[in-house]
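sorry for the late reply, my laptop died twice this morning and i had to redo everyting from scratch. anyway the thing you sent over, i finally got around to it. pasting the sequence first so we're on the same page, its 287 residues, then the predicted structure underneath. double check i copied it right bc i was rushing
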Amino acid sequence: MLSLLLAAVSQPINFDDLGLTRGIDLGFFTLRWYSLAYLAGIILAYWHTSKAIRTPGAPLAQRHADDLFFYCTLGIILGGRLGYAMFYAPELLAQPGELIKLWEGGMSFHGGLMGVVLAFAWVSWRGKLNFLRVADYVSVAVPFGMLFGRLANFVNGELWGRPAGPDVSWAIVFPDAGPLARHPSQLYEAGLEGLLLLIIMMLLFWKTRARFRPGLLAGTFTAGISAGRFVVEFFREPDAQLREFALSTGLSMGQWLTIPLFLVGLFFMVRALVRPPLGTAESPPPA
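ok and here's the structure:
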């Protein structure tokens, strides 16, 4: 009896047994969890930024936040899709009709990040705002989107992990990934790039004076999310068209793309820490 019980416990989890659906069936239309994840992330980021800019010394006003989130939304969608085509599926660039089919999936985190950075730059330039300080205030809430987005990936049963060994009791057999039990790498990303980074950023903003060191919060976010993605990529299954690339280089495309991001984040963290904070007699003009 004990041996049978242990055998049952050691069986991998079957994804279909979890009873998850890919969205809310409205009869005439299915509202996808992934769409709701994007929406929730943007709304919560807007809410937190609107709250943060009411603190003393904020670098932007509410009208700037309104513009910022409009352009950031465009940056996430357009940058994410174009980034996916550039880094993961170049054939889409020659097929504009396929490129615009966002509902079929295929978004790049790195492309979305570039789109957001361009949105920061545009709003900062147009409003004569300090780019780094704007990035500091908004980056605190970006992990909301990462958390919900990766949870939606898990619910959709997509972007699964690599095959797991028998010692991984939480391994899952995903319906579209064959019979092998795999790491639920979507949950790893939700924990590292979402929840953990969100806690760190919130503590830095609300419990320290990090926001008075231009670039510290943005640098921490960039380095933190890059480090989290780099680690998770060891457990995440590479895209089918890039498996040979990962085998030949030793690292996945996602890992190679995170290395320069991590170095950029580290640079701004060090830069912010060696300079006097704003509000001191030695502090230089914002740059």
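Strands lie at 13-14, 23-25, 30-32, 172-173.
thats about all i looked at so far, will dig more tmrw
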